[in-house]
Amino acid sequence: MSTIRILASDGLPAFLSFLSQKHQRVLVPVVKSANKRSVIFEPWRAGMPVVLEKATVPPKEAVLPQCETLLTYKKSKNQEDLGDITVSLDDTPEALSTAIFACRPCDARGFRVLDRPFLNGLFPDPYYKARRESLTVFTITCSSGCNTCFCHWVGGGPSSPEGSDVLMTKIEEALMLQAISPAGEALLKDCDLPDGRDIFPRAEAARKAAWASLAPAPDLKQAPQKIAALFGNDDFWQSQTSGCLSCGACTYLCPACYCFNITDEGDGFGVHGGRRLRSWDNCMSSLFTHEASGHNPRMLKTPRMRNRVSHKFSTYPENWGTFSCNGCGRCISNCPVSLDIRAIVLAALDNAG
Amino acid sequence: MPVLNSKELRIVGFLCNWCAYGGADTAGVARAGQPTDLRIIRVPCSGRVDPLFVLKALLEGADGVLVSGCHPRDCHYAAGNFYARRRLEVLKRFLPVLGIDDARFEYAWVSASEGQRWQHVVTSFTKRIHAMGPAPHFDDAKPLLRVADMALTALRPLGTAQNAAVNELKQVIKDKLPELNCVIGWQQGYDGAHATPLFMKTPEDVDKLSWGPFNVMNPAVYLPLFKGKKTGVVVKGCDSRSVVELLQENLIKREDVIIFALPCEGTLDIARVNEKLGRYTRINAVAYDEAGVTITADGKEHRFCMNDFAQGKCYGCATPMAVLADTRLGEPHKVNPVSSVPPELAMLDDMALSERMAFWRGQMERCLRCYACRNACPMCVCRDYCVSDSRNPHWMSQDADINQKLFFQTIHALHLSGRCTGCGECQRACPVGIPILALRQQIARAVAQLFDDYKAGLNPAALPPLLGYEAHEKNIHERDWK
Ligand code: SF4
Ligand code: SF4
Ligand code: SF4
Ligand code: SF4
Ligand code: SF4
To answer: d(Cα B394, Cα B391) in Å, to the nearest integer?
Structure first.
């Protein structure tokens, strides 16, 4: 059996401070109070109140920051010969070794979705790699389903260990910590938390109860083919997309979306140097497919939505054998018009042909 | 030759080519000594100065900004400075809500022959900036989180529209359907506590139409997409103001839109409803009564009284019935319009400038730059061509820093000057709950103060104030530079 530890609720700050010694930052969910309250991952500092709730925004930022500097360049002139310009370049990845504390199983599975294109493709991404390799993921299992969650439709579940180093389950006020990966194993062995093997059965019971609270899942095996077959069916996509505002909130809140844009920004007029930035981008935006010629193959929101749904449920599975949607439901619960991606997938399955 | 003995500060000047720039030249020729803090950017006309130039300078570190052009009625191009005067005055009244001291920005009229006046303007403005010292920065502020007080009293009793003539309305829509491309309304969304837009094309679609406190979305946002196709829209009072504003700006044509209306008794603040419901697997029942809704989720009952859980805008709502409609069914409650300050704006009013800066620092940090706020706004006309993510021109950095994020909010707010109807969709759409509506509300308040209590979206024939001018502005007074 893997290493199991028990963390009493009052032991949390000490444990987070232990993690801070092992990592340059520990990301924890904190409440941002406002009329519409949100829960955001932030670097932990002593004294910071942590909530063990599902975050509004997944901790994707740990491996794929909203914006990062890919490289900086400087131009310098040879004072003897002003035509002789040297360009120096620094492309060291911005990578802090990071522990994520208390994300959800769907968030952890998101890192796996990102790993495939960023690490397993023809050209591994050095920036992503540097951050991913120094990432430790502590996941808290969910005690129940939720009206917008559908992790169990897409191969996950409220206690899925995929993508986690340590899986935690709440038992009354304490947390049971179970090592999943070798890195998690090493960390738990190293910490001074008491052994928790005797409460493991209780954790297992809690996890079972969470599974039992979920509504039965439809079979999505046919989804990739069905959705691919609908590619040219404009009426179908039109009918599914009328309410969409093309805002992209759904993709920025998605733990499995990873599209980005690259922009060169010069200092002043770029005469002395500048930076190359990589920032989030998404297929719901018109500029996403705006070509240098001025042509845009996806002028309307219909093909954009088709792309989003196809990428998650058809083309990514075609390439990597699994959906690039973890069923976290954030795109549903945060969509300004309550558009439901589940309904689109089900409609595609229902569609004759 | 600095006339002031202290260190130089960063002051940016936008000077019109024909007057102020000439005035500065005249001052130079006359060897009239001036402080050297000012960095001048020459523009063809003060009307060319987008208030965003000023904001960009201030957000990126300027300690003061001065705009100067020809005297009113003396514009080289006839009316550029008349437009500028309105915009710049609105800007001046906008800055404080961000936590920026409006004394750091000034505009002044100087003609090409007024070398002495120029010397005087630039010297006194520089003195003023020096007296204030270097400008504080958002990056240095310590984040402050504060929540607006939502314990509000509505102008009329809010309710759940139990007696609304929905069935009659459905019939009217069905009758009209054959001549329309579609009719936009609402239907139940992914569960009984969430609605979603409905696009009615067939009588069966019309049967799905819902009317009540969950209909939060503003259907007017879709109208410009149906340009040239005759489209119907069901509206709440606030939504109708967006339709009117679209008409005011010729973004849609009156003959292309058929407006259906019922009296609105308020809509729920879904964010607060969601917070109270917490995590639930399913909704068992949604029961309505006159005063509120009872939602049973996972067997647990939650009571939402409209007076406690309405959207911020509903408490001060003076237009529960559409201001313009082709079909109105039913009578709304009588409302005595009393001007009240909306909750988030009231919270900011109570803060010192430094606290406001800290507040926006604390709020904007978590902005995702998703632009849901922009796309949810029915009045946002550029959308796909927005300067915030355009690369050509590349006006904003893609950096995820607080200044860029706040800068976008000021872009949206200022582009909505005198056009925002206060529908609140921008704020409702924000997935991370940033109270950005307050910025729009402050501008709407400034517009009302300056232009005879003008409110956007009430009269289809009215010209939005920032698209026009008066040679003699009643409420904008020339600064005294003597
Ligand atoms: S969040 Fe909703 S409205 Fe926005 S792009 Fe996604 S589906 Fe469309
Ligand atoms: S293409 Fe769209 S759905 Fe796919 S990862 Fe990019 S943003 Fe997400
Ligand atoms: S602002 Fe007025 S019309 Fe709009 S939802 Fe609230 S009460 Fe109804
Ligand atoms: S700025 Fe906000 S409140 Fe104003 S019209 Fe747009 S969405 Fe509505
Ligand atoms: S909706 Fe909110 S998070 Fe998105 S860009 Fe607007 S303020 Fe930022």
So the answer is: 4
Is the CB of A285 inside a 6 Å radius of any atom of ligand 1? no
Would the CA dihedral through B370, B374, B377, B381 be positive or negative? Answer: negative
Tell me which residues of chain B, numbers 359 to 388, contact chain A at a CB-CB cutoff of 8 Å: 362-363, 366, 368-372, 374-376, 383-385
Delimiting residues of CATH 3.40.50 domain(s) in chain B: 9-140
Task: Evaluate whether A222 touches A314 at the Cβ level (below 8 Å).
Answer: no
Query: CA angle A31-A35-A38, nearest 5°?
Result: 30
**Do the beta carbons of residue B432 and residue A40 sit within 8 Å?**
yes
- pLDDT value of position B469: 96
More confident residue, B392 or A243: A243
B424 lines ligand 4 (CB under 6 A): yes
Nearest to B384 among A38, A67, A286 (CB): A286
Q: How many CB atoms are closer than 10 A to CB B202?
A: 10
Tell me how far apart the alpha carbons of residues B16 and B76 are, in angstroms, rounded to a whole number: 9
**Whether residue B453 has pLDDT greater than 90:** yes
Calculate ∠ Cα A68-A74-A79, nearest 5°: 175
Q: Residues A330, A332, A335, A338: what is their CA dihedral angle, to the nearest 10 degrees?
A: -160
- Model pLDDT for residues B200-243, shown as the tens digit of each residue: 999 999 999 999 999 999 999 999 999 899 999 999 999 999 99
Contact A339/B196, CB-based, under 8 Å? yes
Residue B3 has pLDDT above 60, yes or no: no
Beta bridge partners, A261, equal A279
Smallest Cα–Cα separation from B342: which of B312, B376, B309?
B312
Do B246 and B224 meet the contact criterion of CB atoms below 8 Å apart?
yes
- Residue B228 per-residue DSSP state: T
Q: Per the structure block, which two tokens stand in for A136?
A: 């430790």
Assess whether pLDDT exceeds 90 at residue B334. no
Nearest to B16 by CA among B60, B57, B53, B61: B53
Say what the pLDDT of residue B130 is.
Answer: 96
- Residue B148 pLDDT greater than 60, yes or no: yes
Q: What is the pLDDT of residue A129?
A: 98
For residue range A48-63, list pLDDT tens digits in order.
999 999 999 999 999 9
Residues 6 or more apart whose CB falls under 8 angstroms from that of A205 comprise: none
d(CA B479, CA B108): 7
From the list A169, A61, A158, A52, the residue with the least C-alpha distance to A101 is A52
User: Contact at 8 Å (CB) between A104 and A139?
Assistant: yes
Query: Is B373's C-beta closer than 6 angstroms to any atom of ligand 5?
Result: yes
C-beta neighbour count of A123 within 10 angstroms: 7
Q: What is the CATH number of domain B9-140?
A: 3.40.50
Distance (Å) from CA B261 to ligand 4 centroid: 20
Per the structure block, which two tokens stand in for B229?
């196709």
Neighbour-count burial of A173, counting CB atoms closer than 10 A to its CB (0-12 exposed, 13-18 middle, 19+ buried): exposed
A353, pLDDT greater than 60? no
Residue range B452-464: mean pLDDT, rounded: 97
Q: Nearest ligand, CA of residue A341?
A: 1
pLDDT of residue B5: 58
CA pair distance B109, B81, nearest whole angstrom: 9
Whether B309 has a pLDDT exceeding 90, the answer reads yes
Backbone angles phi, psi at A52, to 5 degrees: -95, 40
Question: Please, are residues A16 and A43 in contact by the beta-carbon 8 Å criterion?
Answer: no
Cα distance between residue B122 and residue B36, in whole Å:
9
Please judge whether A333 and B274 are an interchain contact, meaning their C-beta atoms are less than 8 angstroms apart. yes
User: Quick one: closest CA in A to B427, which residue?
Assistant: A36
Of B197, B398, B435, the CB nearest to A277: B398
Three-class DSSP category at B227:
coil
Rounded CA gap, A39 and B433, in Å?
Answer: 10
CA angle B384, B389, B395 (to 5 degrees): 120
